[in-house]
Design brief:
The protein is an all-alpha fold and 75 residues long. The chain has helices at residues 16-29, 35-41, 46-55, 65-73. The chain has one domain (16-73). Helices cover 53% and strands 0% of the residues.
């Protein structure tokens, strides 16, 4: 496993868990990590991590909200 060190300005008010979750969510969204890998990175179950993805407006289905709304309108 790789280790990354970040030096953030003091005015960035985020703790390590929040930063890890943001990174895991972004890596999942980009397809660089599976849902299980991303959840494991932050120490959450898949279900808990899926809840976190919602906070970042990241779909577990690989589609944007706009794409889903478009599909619903055309169904």
């Amino acid at each position: 496993m790789k280790t990354v060190t970040l030096h953030l300005p003091d005015n960035v008010d985020l703790n390590e868990k929040e930063i890890s979750t943001m990174l895991a969510a972004q890596l999942y969204d980009l397809g660089k990590m599976s849902l299980g890998q991303a959840a494991n990175l932050v120490g959450l179950s898949k279900e808990e991590f899926m809840d976190e993805l919602g906070k970042y407006k990241i779909s577990i289905f690989g589609e944007t909200l706009e794409e889903i709304e478009h599909d619903l309108k055309n169904a």
